[in-house]
Hints:
By secondary structure, chain A is of the alpha+beta class.
Amino acid sequence: MVGIAPTGNRLYKIKIMNTLKSLWTRRGQYGWISIEIIVASAIAFFVLDSIVVSTYDASRPYNYDVDRLVMVQVSRLDQYHPDYDDTRMRNLDVIEGDIMSIIPGLAELPEVEKAIPLPIRGFGGGDDSRDDVPLAESLHVQSFKATFIPETEFFTTMGIKAASDIPGNPSIEQMNDMWVNFYDEMICTRMEARLLHGDEYTAMAKSREAHDTWHAANPDLSNPIDKLAIVGIVEDIRAWGDRPWPLVRFYADPLYHSLQWNNRGVYNILLRLKKRENAKSFAHKFNHDPELQKLARSGVLEFNNAKAYAEFNGADTLFSPKERYRNLLVVFFAINIFLGVFGTFWMLTRKRAEEAGIMRAFGATPLRVRLMLYVEGSMIALVSSLTGCAIYVYYLSKNPDQFEYGLSGFRAVDMEQMPAELHSWVGDFWAHSAVVSAVVCGLMLIVVLLGIAIPAWKLSHINPVEALAEE
Amino acid sequence: MRKFLARFRQAPMFSTIYIIGAALSVASVMLVAIFLHVKTSNIYPEYSRDRILYNNEIGLDFGHSDARITVGYHNAYSPKFASTIIDSISDIANVALERYRKSANVYVDGKKYENVIIRSATPDIFSIYNYEFIEGKPFPDNQESIAVISDKLARRIFGSERDVVGRKFKTSVLSTGYFGRLHADNAEFTVYGVFREGSRLLPLSFAEIIYPVNLNLLLAQETENNHTYGEYDIIGDLKMTILPKTGVSKEEVSSKIDEVIARQATRTITIQKPILEKKDGVTRIIGSELANLQPGEYTLTNGTYPRSSLEMMFGDQSFPGLYAEFDLKGFTKLYGLLVLTLLLVPALNLSSLISGNMDSKMNEMGIRKAFGARNSTLLRQVINENLWLTGCGAILGVILAWIGVLLWKDWLFEGVAGLAAGELSASDVMLDPAMLFAPKVFIAAVIICVTLNLLSSLIPSWWALRRPAIDSIKSKS
């Protein structure tokens, strides 16, 4: 059964019906491979779902200079250190002074453009502070709550930009120095301003009015989180590796106040490196160079650790142990399918030698012979993997709690209720299923074609005279 | 064997692919088996792991007039309450009191050694965990300033695990709190014994330094009103590790502990109670004060404790609180499905190879059928031939599994030790030979091998042998 008709021109006509007949003839062998691909595809969908979503979420830009940032952590001395002083160790003024005395030395390093202290919460602490922002009755969305130390050039060091097209919006240099009151005010991202007040261009005025009205009616109470006055708007940024939405709000937290609430004993100093410096290499160098570490020694504090900011904020940790095990499963399936396809097609080369010999005798090129097998393999791979994905999607449609909306904290959200700005294919069941199915089918197709490659090459280089003579 | 070798030479590519396919399947199932073995089996020093129970927390909750707020303490036990429980179950179990393990710095002759795992316990810990002593012996009751250390730590800090009994070292654990609070837990110890270090993959027992909990001293200090959590009679920092005596079930131990807790809940207790202010519908905590709670005004519970080692290792790690539950059904289903998948997919693979290979044998089968051979005989022959191939694959698979575990042990076992990515290094993971060469693991390999063979060869062979003999003879090889 010849799947490809030899033609005089360079266009190859693939007769689908002949290919289907060829597949049907060999259904005994191909049937097993097909069932294997169906089962593997259904499981691969389950495994790859979270990886596809995590990869998509992590690939979205942070919109600040995360690759130029290094976190240097200092901590208090051990009791047995010769300079240990129990009284000074408990004095926050001393600790604050020591942090500030370390910073100039780090800032003078040739690789460093800027060094600033960071507070414990939000961008500095690695913790998960959030506000549940009400967008409508019973509809809340989480906004990352971050603090910054005023008058330390926080925003410019991070590379965050002001939304300069908004009338009345302070510049980023001005925002650096704003003492944003935790109870009344915030600097937020453009998207949050838009979601809260309809559009970002009038958000500052509207929020101020809402704040003042509520405060007048409730003088003894703190403002609720949706009645804060917006005093500055920055361009959308993503805070951490696991935050898909650019909803971030900033409050001022002076260093001394931040130290009061620091129960970890580790203090963070952020370094902004010059262009073309590599954050990971710099952090690695810092961790292994005692001379550099001496720069982070002052008073009651000593060097603890240095990390590239991307590692610190989870940008790099795509694969937790659980996800690694899932990856291993996908690799396992891929190898099995490769072996199965390779073995099946290898054994078929002997049986199809006559067919290939006839094709070559009639002028078919080796490429045409290989294409015949590739087309057969592709049809098996695509039909089987689509079937497997369809089975799993059907299961998901009956068990929506298994659906991977992506990332804890956002999983249970009903995307249809969310504002359009926050929609993406991740939250749309059919779009999401289509994307993951495409990934699975693509993977299966690649594996099958790889498995066919060598047997196809062998068959295509068969000597037609010998092949026909043997038969 | 000769037939097998002849068949191998006849179809080397088929045989090689078959063996590799079987090896991959066996290797992957073996990795799961080794993983489960490490997490659940009785391995040094937890030779009684299947019987050990953990009673780590007690929950003291009391409501407020504003029903939206419930305040409570969920923490370990006070010395007094722990003693009461020990007294009630000492006839049916050995009980050791422990504090949560910490990471400390160790100092010897001015040199600092970081990240040493240190824990404190009463001497009963040595009757529960079977630490093997190379030198010295377990410390006795109610002692201070002595400790036993692991052989690896002895080599690290003293250069040798021998002749170190009597040598001194210092430890420093700094705990920081809000508002600059600092608690320096520093001590100097004399080495009392050296034990063979266990594996970090058994986090419940792993330690490099163990020093005594002096229960008598703690009880004496409690009577001096040493309030830590506001209710010194109940809440503290001591957890219980329990080994029931032979023949005693978990339920018996659990019910005795529940009785003690129920008796305790009939007492009036003194606690640091939050002061609330309700204004305009908003309730805030504005301070705290000492207050008495009568029976009925508070609840006392140990949640889902005591827990077995399996429940501790596989329990809800994302929220390991008082009420965290271990879903045995879900666990069995997950691992069962995993093993089935790891067998089924390769079995389908191998079936396709066998199906293709059967075509080349149809002539031979047809002739033999014509001479009176029964289908069952031919089927048995095919299965036996494939069993040789599966067996070779199984041996290769077991070797691959061991190599994989040794090469990537840090990567594979990070989840076991409950650590984040990158926290476990290859040198941290000591794999005891018992983990790799256990009889259970070999038996698992044999069962996998036979199951795989049956799954992969039965159906395609049976299907091929359905054809009449004459059709088989006529078919091309």
